[in-house]
Design a protein that fits this description.
The complex is a heterodimer of chains A (386) and B (431). Chain A is an alpha/beta fold and 386 residues long. Chain A is 35% helix and 22% strand. In chain A, the strands form 2 sheets. In chain A, strands 4, 5, 6, 7, 8, 9, 10, 12, 13 and 14 form a 10-stranded mixed beta sheet that branches. Chain A has a 4-stranded mixed beta sheet with strand order 3-2-1-11. Chain A starts with a strand and ends with a helix. Helix content of chain B is 41%, strand content 17%. Chain B has 13 helices and 16 strands. The radius of gyration of chain B is 21 Å and the shape is globular. Classes of the chains: A alpha/beta (386), B alpha/beta (431). Chains A and B meet through helix 1, helix 2 and helix 7 of A and helix 2 and helix 6 of B.
Chain lengths: 386, 431
């Protein structure tokens, strides 16, 4: 089998047809309806050919529960830990012939929520390929007409990205020489004028229409952060897509979620970033970020960091209607990092950490606070290693 | 975990159809609980365990609705989406099919098995070729089986003189001219929608090498039956699945062929069976190696490149072992068969050694954990059942397959009869 996989979008609103793949690549199929992702499944060359009926069975298996939940939830979010048969909350499901119309109504209702906050989109462009930066700026350009702004955190020694930025006079540029992603995000926060700071992770390109669903989540003063959904790029390394699917294929990823103080009491570890796609697409209320010092001083993809936000009384939401794609090959001149937890994955991360010296290279570990001293010890050990 | 206070045999067998109004569920005098099969438009979605000790003698509609939604909501959602995507399926024509029932000296069970098959055959006469029902009488001690088969019009009867289930299966293979060959155990009863679902499956997956389906209990009258089923039984769930030659996220696949289905209900492409050389007569021989023949064939079908498709509607009800000694023998035979099969697979296809060894390690680890849990009283099965399976595995690993081959060679010599040659080692699966 090829080392590269493909990601395909299958629109459930279109008639199903017999399924075939070009070449010998395996494929991650995103099942979508009116833009929303309802589920995923994997097809390998040995699975082919798939008849229309077989494809229907696989799609129903992967996307059925999310479709029923979205109809049931309407405009509301799922409040964790509601997502459990043991709590008695299960979706009510009607017949097949009315499912799509009710699903369409639910999605339209969700998308019609007003946007009541202004946004500063903060992009840390250091080390990115110019083509990626250009693609992101093209996608977000229409969003800037809505009163929002874009800020690119730029290393002024990087001539290639400077050339791209020269074509975008509507983008503010903040120069920060060297430094980690945390330092860049802090600089972006300080420079931002919007009520909400929106961050795009490394190599993440949003899909058109990504911003409004994120900002619609700030419909109450106590909402501190909203995360969006991230999918793998269309052509990606096998281990990256496999890691993504292994972690994230649960149908819960297609459901809007709300984490509040009751979640902190119930869960020891923190916000399950493994369910929400991590911080690749995140919008943070500036007031919340400034009230939580650890947020951009420590690695922001660690669940324990976001736990502080919840403990301070803020709400965190996950909005799967905000979609972006992440490519592991988008960093200029570096080995792409996989999301794989497989053998070698940890070693690869540690080697990359030694090379670059930035802590976010370490794989996120959803550990209890007592492990923090061990983590700091490991940090200093690796920095001191020859 | 087994709760002896909650799980008191007998359990009633009930069904609920979600498209019909719910009614309260009442347990009769003497019933310790109910096993409830939840269907939607005839298709099985989930099952529910209701115990008198926990839920009382009668469940109101609201409570029943809550319990059903707890086990069946996701499955109902999948079913709804399937309907939305594919529409209501039309009734498919009957495939070219022989249904073989291999039996020995169990005439009453045979009658119970044949009755619904004959009813399905007659009900679908207008929908394509009439299915061929074949009784294979394995080394009969008398003519009771022949007499029982003759009570049903149009049911064929053949005799296989060499004792052993796989001899019987190969006799069925030699006796059919149909495109598909189904096997149903003589102690099983097919569901009323069995043939409809098979017809749909064949139409949807024309390249399949075989089909399997769920096995549910026919009755739960004794503690042994209840324990077996509560521990999972033959259950593989109610989700459609297609098993291809490779699976990217499963390191023991396809060595874990036991997950593909159970021989109590399996349907194979006749041409593929012949291409693979038929069933391995050194497996499923009856004592001392009474299992493994079905799983061996599932494994070989999948490795041949033709997929095996699990159809949740291809439902069969099976009479489980009634007493604990019988259940213990069954667990022992499972361990024996799995290990014998593992050794056979490595011998016949050395390139599968890494996968088989990974499977062996997985199997040992899983059973060690189960044993610890059972000793702590936290597993549904008592420790002696888990130990029986582990013991079977150890004995099976050390030469049981080879011993079985010698035994059946002696059997053949002592019996006059015809059969296909030994399947798997003489005709290797093309990789």
């Amino acid at each position: 089998m090829s080392d590269l996989w493909t990601t395909l979008d299958a629109d459930l609103g279109e008639p199903l047809q017999d399924f075939a793949l070009a070449g010998d690549r395996s494929c991650l199929v995103n099942l979508r309806y009116q833009g929303a992702v309802l589920g995923q499944f994997v097809v390998t060359p040995s699975d082919l050919p798939l008849s229309r009926e077989e494809l229907g069975e696989m799609a129903a298996r992967a996307a059925g529960p999310a479709a029923a939940w979205l109809v049931d939830l309407g405009r509301n979010d799922l409040t964790i830990p509601e997502l459990s048969a043991r709590t008695g909350r299960t979706p009510r499901c009607g017949s097949g012939d009315e499912l799509f119309s009710r699903l369409g109504d639910a999605l339209a209702s969700r998308r019609s929520r007003p946007v009541t906050v202004s946004a500063s989109i903060i992009i840390h462009a250091a080390g990115w390929k110019p083509s990626v930066l250009r693609a992101i700026l093209a996608v977000i350009r229409p969003d800037l007409r809505g009163g929002h702004e874009a800020i690119v955190i730029h290393d002024d020694g990087d001539a290639k990205t400077a050339a791209v930025l020269a074509d975008h006079a509507d983008v503010r540029v903040v120069n920060v020489r060297g430094g980690s992603i945390e330092a860049a995000r802090q600089a972006g926060l300080r420079a931002a004028r919007g009520e909400v700071a929106v961050f795009l992770g490394e190599g993440v390109i949003p899909e058109p229409g990504w911003l409004d669903p994120l900002l619609q989540g700030f419909d109450a003063a106590e909402v501190g952060a909203v995360f969006g959904m991230v999918l793998p790029a269309r052509n990606e390394r096998a281990d990256v897509i496999q890691g993504h699917f292994s972690r994230y294929h649960s149908y819960a990823r297609s459901l809007p979620m709300r984490f509040g103080p009751e979640f902190v009491r119930g869960w020891r570890w923190g916000v399950p970033l493994w369910e929400t796609g991590g911080c690749s697409v995140m919008a943070v209320r500036r007031a919340a970020a400034l009230s939580c010092r650890r947020l951009f001083h420590d690695c922001s993809w660690r669940p324990s960091v976001w736990k502080d936000l919840l403990a301070a009384g803020w709400i965190i939401r996950y909005e799967p209607l905000s979609l972006a794609r992440r490519s592991s090959a988008s960093m200029e001149g570096s080995d792409p990092l996989g999301c794989s937890r497989g053998r070698g994955g940890l070693l690869r991360h540690m080697l990359a950490y030694r090379r670059r010296g930035t802590r976010y290279e370490l794989p996120h570990v959803d550990l209890l606070p007592p492990w923090r001293p061990a983590r700091r010890g490991l940090d200093s050990l690796l920095r001191r290693a020859p | 975990m087994w709760h002896s206070g909650k799980m008191v045999a007998p359990y009633a067998m009930r069904e609920i159809e979600l498209t019909e109004p719910l009614r309260p569920l009442a347990l009769r005098e003497g019933e310790g609980g109910a096993h409830v099969l939840v269907r939607r438009k005839g298709r099985p979605l989930a099952r529910l365990w209701v115990s008198r000790a926990e839920h009382g003698a009668e469940l109101s509609v609201d409570e029943l609705d809550r319990l059903i939604r707890g086990v069946a909501a996701e499955a109902a959602a999948r079913h709804s989406l399937r309907e939305a995507l594919l529409g209501e399926p039309e009734r498919q024509p009957t495939p070219s099919l022989t249904v073989a029932v291999c039996t020995r000296n169990r005439a009453d069970l045979l009658r119970r098995c044949l009755a619904p098959l004959v009813a399905l055959r007659d009900e679908r006469r207008h929908l394509g070729p009439e299915i061929d029902i074949l009784v294979v009488d394995n080394a009969p001690p008398d003519d009771s089986t022949r007499v029982a088969a003759a009570e049903f019009a149009g049911v064929r009867y053949v005799c296989e003189p060499v004792p052993g289930l796989n001899f019987g299966r190969n006799r069925a293979l030699a006796s059919t001219t149909r495109e598909w060959l189904a096997f149903v155990d003589d102690d099983a009863v097919v569901d009323r929608f069995w043939l409809d679902r098979l017809a749909e499956g064949v139409a949807a997956s024309p390249d399949a090498g075989g089909f399997t389906g769920p096995i549910l209990p026919l009755m739960l009258e004794t503690e042994a039956q209840l324990r077996f089923e509560y521990a999972g039984g033959f259950g593989k769930g109610f989700d459609w699945e297609r098993f291809s030659r490779e699976r990217w996220n499963d390191r023991i696949y396809p060595s874990n062929a036991g997950r593909f289905g159970t021989g109590a209900c399996m349907v194979h492409s006749t041409s593929l069976l012949r291409e693979l050389g038929g069933f391995d007569e050194a497996l499923d021989t009856g004592a001392p190696l009474p299992g493994g023949g079905d799983i061996d064939m599932f494994y070989r079908v999948v490795r041949s490149g033709r997929p095996l498709v699990y159809l949740p509607g291809l439902l069969v009800f099976h009479e489980h072992r009634r007493d604990m000694p019988g259940l213990r023998k069954q667990y022992y035979s499972w361990g024996l068969s799995v290990a014998a099969l593992m050794r056979k697979s490595i011998r016949c296809a050395p390139e599968t050694r890494p996968s088989q060894h990974r499977f062996m390690r997985w199997w040992l680890r899983r059973h060690a954990i189960r044993l610890v849990k059972a000793l702590a009283g936290r597993d549904v099965s008592p420790p002696r059942l888990v130990l029986a399976e582990i013991l079977g595995g150890i004995i099976g690993y050390f030469g049981e397959y080879e011993r079985s081959q010698k035994r059946i060679a002696l059997r053949r010599q002592s019996v006059i009869g015809q059969g296909l040659p030994i399947a798997s080692c003489e005709r290797r699966v093309e990789t």
